[in-house]
Design brief:
It holds the Pfam family SBP_bac_1. A five-stranded mixed sheet has the order 2-1-3-12-6. The protein has a four-stranded mixed sheet with strand order 8-9-7-10. Helix 11 packs parallel to helix 12 and helix 18 packs antiparallel against helix 19. A hairpin with a 4-residue loop joins strand 4 and strand 5. With 529 residues, the chain is an alpha/beta fold.
Amino acid sequence: MMGDRNMNGTKSMKRVVCLSMAAVLAVSTAACGKKETETDGNGEAPATIRIVTSVDAQFQVDNNPVIEAIEKAANVKLEIEVPPINNYLDRLNVIMASGELPDIVFLQETTDSSFYKWADDGLLIPLDEYLPSLPNVTANTTEEQLKAGVVPASGKLYAFPRPHAENFNGAVIRQDWLDRLGLELPETIEEFEEVATAFTFDDPDGDGQDNTYGFSMTNVNDNYNYNNLSVFYSAFNIHKAFSPDENGKVTIIQDQPGYYDMIDFFRRMYEKGVMDPEWYTNQGYAETDKFKFGQTGIDSLYIKPVSLFSTDVYTGTKSAFPESRLGFIYPLKADENSQSYYETPASTWGGYAVSSSCTQVERVLQFIDWCYSKEGRTLMNLGVQGITYDSYTTTEDGTLAKINYKDEQYENSLKYVSKYFTFITALDGMRLVAVGDSPENQDAYINMETTYRNNVQMAYIPTIQVLTSYSALMKDNPELGSKLDEACAKYIIGNSTREEFVNYVENTYVPQFADVIAEMQEYYDTNLK
């Protein structure tokens, strides 16, 4: 092992450059199943539409042929503000408080308390009444997906959730580091610890410097159906909301014995010096930035198999380390005899809302509906044929679309297309294999998803938004999650005892969810059992 360090010693790290529910369902049930339509040109002047959205770091707004094609096809002029991805929510909070609101607002999460507050404060408009006149939205969004955009306290739809192909969450790992150290992909929590320890102390990058850690984190609480820690859940027998234990009980993850086991594990990793000692300062995608720049060897922040072959995780790592290779960690098992599992609600990723400042609601909604059309979703996901892609083919089982590139088309796609600036992130229900730089990568990706389906037990659960008590709790206690994160961080870094931490969770945090847990159990017993 390299160098002698005190427990939790700090290293010299590489520099990172960081640039009513019943009503809405009644409407959606009537609307869903309609055929989609394309927008016809009628000679009217282009509508200027202001949007604030998140995009990938490489994406350029100006002189973008895909945006120009979107504007021409949809007869609009787009004014797009793109705050830095790591500070998106901070900037969005400023915008929403300014009184100068854009027409369309991208929400990274529709379970966030800010979303509920903006709806309650009248900054966003309810969208229920418009659904029957939006054939493309309703043709491409299921009832369960629509629930993700509902604010339970009012039961009204305030955001169009972005339909997404099935989630297959896990973690990405530096495969080249594993190979250099003669290690295998970890499948159990014990093997994960062994690999993370070796990545910390055994010079996995071969640069002769003591400057790497096993992994980092952004926070330690998936509040409540998020996915950034899902790779650990089956290892500690933790279940997400609505997933019953062996006795048919459903509850939040912080009300389960395995939760404390997981936090104890993170504390031990911190004490050993295996976890990035500055993890608790991470915001946005800083955890992924550290992975891309070789500071850590494992990243679990919203990682799916696609992250290994496209997205900023892949391109950023390849840019910094051209010879690097990535591997995928499936949900970890408690031991070799255990079953790994992954629990997920109906697959959506964020959503788009319309602000109350919008003076042309029908025209804006017409544009949004176009974005859900075949023309719109193809343009926004693939770009312009001949510039950002050559063609795409469908796998035999109809679940994946393989995108084919020639010459500079793959590089162009990184500049002109963003997975964030889409209203539906799957093409005709198919996940996109936008891996471009080799047929071998496409085959590897397809193999990973096939392996996931065959080896990881999948469970589908409702979104937390079906609970009216949940939105009321988030509205009245917007700092609930951050206070829990603070308590967890204090315990993990050794600034509080286990007794103090458990006392806070059991006697302060969980009791505030009493109504949520009771409503959750009733919903499960009535609708799911």
